[in-house]
Amino acid sequence: MSLLFKHLRVHQIFGANTDVGKTILTSALVRASALKNNNVFYLKPVSTGPLDSADDKHVKRFGGRAAHRIRTECLFQYDEPISPHLAAQTKGAAPPPSDETLVNAIAGYISRSAKGASLEAPGHIYIETAGGVHSPTLSGTTQVEAYRPLFLPTILIGDSKLGGISTTIASYEALLLRGYIIDAVLLFNDSYYRNNEYLHAYFAERGIQVAAVPPPPPLSADTLANRLATEQYYDTLVPAAKRGADDGAVGISDIVDHLDVCHTRRLDELASMPRRTLDTVWWPFVQHGLMVDDSDVTVIDSAHSDFFSIHRAPATSSPVPRTGTSILSPEFDGSASWWTQTFGHASTALTLAAARASGRYGHVMFPQATHLPALHLAERLVKEGPGKGWAARAFISDNGSTGMEVAIKMALRAFTMRRRGEEQVIRKIKRGEKEVFGVLGLKGSYHGDTIGAMDACEESGVYTCEWHDAKGYWFDPPIVAMRNGEAVISVPAALAGQSTEKVVKVESVSWTYDVARRLDSELASVYRNYITDTLGSLSTNQDVPTLAALVLEPLVLGAGGMIFVDPLFQRILIDVVRSGGIIGLPSLGPDSWSGLPVVFDEVFVGLYRLGLESTGPLLGVLPDISVNAKILTGGLVPLAVTLASEAVFDAFLGTGKGGALLHGHSYTAHAVGCEVAGETMRIVDRLKESEGWNEAKGMWGAHPTTQEDASKVWSFWDPGFVESVSRMAEVEEVMTLGCVLAVKIKDNGGGYVSHSAQEVFGKLKDCVGSMDDMGSVAPGGAPYGIHFRTLGNVAYFMTSLNTKGDVIRSVEDRIWRTLMNRQAK
C-alpha cells in the first residue's frame, strides 16, 4: 500500500552498497528540507551498531539552525554492528520481527506524522534503509523485497568508489524490476574515479535527476574538531545557483525542490487520470453511458500481493478528506484480476522470468523453430501436467479465447476426417465447400469473445454481437450448492420431468464430487436416460446442425454465473457421447476418440483454481482436447496452451499444406510468456506442499458439511463460513471450490441482468477502520476495501493460490458482517 498525502512528501532512501554515505546525504536532505520551512521526519526502521553513533542521532545532531523542525526516530535498534537479520537472531530467544511487523510499523509512523501536515505546515519524510538494496531485513528477506508493499518513492544513493558504477546500476535495476519509482540518484563526487560523470549521463537517458556533491572531510581524532568540520561541510551543500556556478551542477537544495516537483506531478497525474480515462478509453463489459463522474473510475496506482493501491476521486457530495488522510488506499483484489492472479501481484520470481526470456530472446518466430521456454513448457504440460496420460501435443497461442478457437478447429477437423475421410475433406477444403457443424454443451457456457468461441455457446443476449451465430445444442445442467446449511443438487424442471426444478439433498459437498461412487445411483439413471433420449431426438431435428464436438467447462461455468455443475451429469454426458451409439462415430482403436471428440475448456478452472490441476481425474474421464490459460502465467502475461491427443493431431497430419492446422499469431509461443509459465508451474509445485494448502484441506476434512476425502475437493474458504452464509436471509445459495466463492442473492428471477448482488455487497468497496488503528491484514496494516465482480445476482470472490489465511478470514468476516447488517435492517 502506497501512503500518499497532499501536504506530506515521503521518500525512502536505498543505498547501492554499504558505506556509500547514505546517512551523510540523507542528513543533508533533511537539513535542506528543514531550511525550506518544512516539518521534517526522519525514520531509521532498523539500526545496528553502537547506539551513541546511531544514524538517527547523527541526523538530529546536524540539523543546523532549523533543527527544531526535525524529528527523528528508530524503530528497531541493535547495538551489534552486524547485518540486521543476525543482530535480531542474537538479541534473544524470541523470533525476529516479521516483514509484516516491520512494514506495519513504518506505515504507522508515516500515518502518525501525516496528522500534523497541512497547507500551512507541509512536511517531508525520509526513511533510510540499512546497507544496500539486497541487505537482509530482520527476517532475512532482502530490503528491496520487504519494503515493496509500501511502494514509496525512492532516492538511490550511488557508489562513488571503485566498482561503484556497476553496483549503482545493478541496484537501480533491482529497484526497477520491482516497480519502484526512482526520483533521484545522489552520490559523492570522487575526483579520481569520477563515477558521477558516467552515472549522470546514464540516468539522464532514463529521465532521472542525479546530484553529485563533494565528499565529507576526513574523520578527525579530535571529537570537537570533527563535529565543527562536519557542520561546516553541511553548510557548503547549498544550491549550485547560490554558489554562482554556471556548469549545470545540482546541489542538495535543488534535489529537495526536484523531489517536491515529483510529488506534485504524481498528485496531479492521479487527479487527472479518471477524466482522461473517461475521455479516451473504451472499457470491456462496461456501459459507458452510466460512467459520467470521475468517482466512477478506480485508479490503480500499484498492486502487490492480493491488494491494489487505489485512488478514487471523491463523489461531488462527499466530504473533503482530512489533510492527514492518504489519498491512496488498499483494496483486496477479490476477482483475482479477472481470474488471472496465481501468486498475487508483482511476483519477483515471475518478473525475473520475464526479464530472463526477454533478455535472451525478445520475441522470435516459432513455426518450424523451437526455443527452450516453449519446449520445456510443452513437455511439462504434456508429460507431467494436465495432459499426463492422454495428450501428445501442445499448441501454444495467445489467450484463452484464442486457445478455444484452436481447440474447436481441432475438434471439427478430427470429426470430419473420421466422417468423410482425408481425401474428401481435403478436396472440400480446396473447393471452399463448407459444412455447417455444431457443438454440444451446457447452458451458461462461455468460451471467450472471439467469434468462433462465441458460436460454441448458446445465444444468451449477454455475450453476443451481430455476427454471433450459435451453432449446436446446450443442456440445462443440474447445479451443486449450499442452501440453508445443506448441500443440495438443483435438477432443472425438464430433466426432472416436472414443472419446476427439483432440489435433492445430498450427504455433503465432498460426497457430491465422489463421481465413481455415484455412477450407479438413481440420479445417474435419470441423467443417462434424459441425455440419451434428448440426443436421440436431436439426430432427427433438422433445425440442429450436425453435432461434431462436445465442448465443456468442467465443474464450474465461470462467466455464465459461477454455476457449479453436478459433476455426475458431466461425466454421464461424456460417457453417452463417447458410446457412439446415439451420436458421432465409433473409435478406430484403443487410443482413439469415439462418438465425438471431447473438449475441456479449463481456461478458468484448470491448474488448481478449483484445487485440482485438471478436472479429468475427478470426473473419471479424460478429454481429447483441453485448453489452459489464466493461471498458466501467474497473471503476468497472456498465454494459452491447447493440448491434444495423438488421434486429434493425426487428423491434420499429411503431406499437403491445406491439411495442416492453419492457425497462428505473430506472438505464437512468445518466449517471455513461455518462460513465465514455466516459472509459474515450478512455484505451483512447491505450493502444493505448503502449510497454507494443508491447513485449508484440514478445515475441509474436519467440517460436517464437507468431511470426506479432502484430497478430492477442497477450498481456501472456510466451510463453516460457507455454511453460515448459506443460511442468510438474502442468500439463495452459496458454493465454493479451491479459490472460488460464489454467493447467489435472492432476486425473484432477475438472474444475469439483475443488480441485486451489486446492491447487497456494494459497501464492501468502502475502506473499513481508522488510520489510527493500523492493524488490518492489508499491506501496512491500513483499512482496506474489497474489489469484487458480480454476474447479475451472483457475487464472486477469488483468492490467489497463496493468499494468506488471515487475509481470507478477514474477507470472510467482512462478507458475513455485510450480510448480517442487511439482515438486521
UniProtKB/TrEMBL annotation:
Source organism of this protein record: Collybia nuda
Protein name in UniProt: PLP-dependent transferase
GO biological process: biotin biosynthetic process
InterPro entries named in the record: Aminotrans_3, Aminotrans_3_PPA_site, P-loop_NTPase, PyrdxlP-dep_Trfase, PyrdxlP-dep_Trfase_major
The keyword RNA-binding is assigned to this record: no
Highest taxon in the source lineage: Eukaryota
Primary location: mitochondrion
Lineage summary: Eukaryota, Fungi, Dikarya, Basidiomycota, Agaricomycotina
Keywords: Aminotransferase, Transferase
GO molecular function: adenosylmethionine-8-amino-7-oxononanoate transaminase activity; dethiobiotin synthase activity; pyridoxal phosphate binding
One Pfam entry name: Aminotran_3
GO CC entries: mitochondrion
Signal peptide start-end: none
Compartment list: Mitochondrion
